[in-house]
## 1
Amino acid sequence: MKSKVRTFIAVEVDEGVRSRASKLIKQLRQSGADVTWVAPENMHLTIKFLGDVDYRDVYHVCRAVEECVATVEPFTVEIRGVGAFPSLERPRVIWLGVDLGAAEMEALNERVESALSAIGFPREGRKFHAHLTLGRVRKSGRAVEHLVAMLREYQDVEFGPTTVDQLVIFSSELLPTGPVYEPMGHAELRG
């Protein structure tokens, strides 16, 4: 039996956002670019990626997250616009951005970072940027140039609202068919 579990903390997105994002992916596939696209059921807004966590520590992670968000009021985020890391010109990760509610997402991330650093998990070195990953580009080439042109058309498109009323602590198992995410705990924002 494995002693560690790949773990992350995220906000599940509303079905309307998943549906619109899936339609966009269907259109972007036509570019022919070599991209690993995210399955609709796996779409989420990551708050913190922990990596491999000892099974014995999962309970402590869940408790720390529950406690740090219990006094936070639920809020709504607006999913809007397409972007890419490191840049739209050289996409490696294609994502949908968070417009309305981005500051609240940053504050939520900071609460989680603080709570988890207090129990021994390192803080993320990069600045937090709330986003919904659509896909990861595997190779560059002419098809990617076509993909970039398509992405530019969606820089201002709204994909809808998502209510942030709980965080989910997920396990992530990487399989040849793609990742499988399973909830290990929930932390409600009760205000």
## 2
Amino acid sequence: MNKIAECSVIIKDDFNNIFLVMKKTKKNEPKLWYNIGRKIKGKESEEKCVTRAIKDDLKSIVFNVERLGEVINISNEVCAVFKGELKEKVVLGKDVVEGKWVSISDIDKFDLAPDEKEKIDLFLNI
């Protein structure tokens, strides 16, 4: 088993929509959409990493967390992919510009960051 470098969580609602965020960027950088995710710090567990990412970006708590699998990102690092649900209103963190609930059929209309499509495909194929 490869060492997990980062964790990503796909937030879903009761209608199987997923929550995507647009992070702050510099002026000339493209504005891309992401799932919630973070690099693992030190000896932090994958679940703690997911909880920290949700708390930092959405000021919320994630429930029903379930590991879906792993993907290799463009940096050749292993990313653990989870799915989870929120039970309270989303309040965007300081590094997030916008957040949006997106239906599965509309995913292709969004300019996703590299690797994000693979994570969503993993979610859809479970």
## 3
Amino acid sequence: MEEAGQMTMSARLRSGMRVIEHWAAEAYQAEKNALYTALFTVLDGSVFRTYEIIDDEERAEEFYVRVRPKLLMKIRLHHFDSFGVVFIGTPEDAGLPEAGSPPEAPPAAA
């Protein structure tokens, strides 16, 4: 039985297996384990309670899951019950800061 205020959803992975397979071919086992654990939280709907989520400001249907400080997985919501993996890589590859990195300072006025 669910506690009041908690929502559980169940989603299906509809796309992105090639993204996962391509990334996994070069990844260490510990990275694979961490990513697969995060992927299961997307499947069961607990990802938003378990991981740091970074919204994609350009695409409302996509968000990043910070799996580790130097490992992100980008998810695209296709429908309320399905999703795809569109990116797996470093924050640098995604154009985002690493976890714990200070924000960039604005340029000094001349």
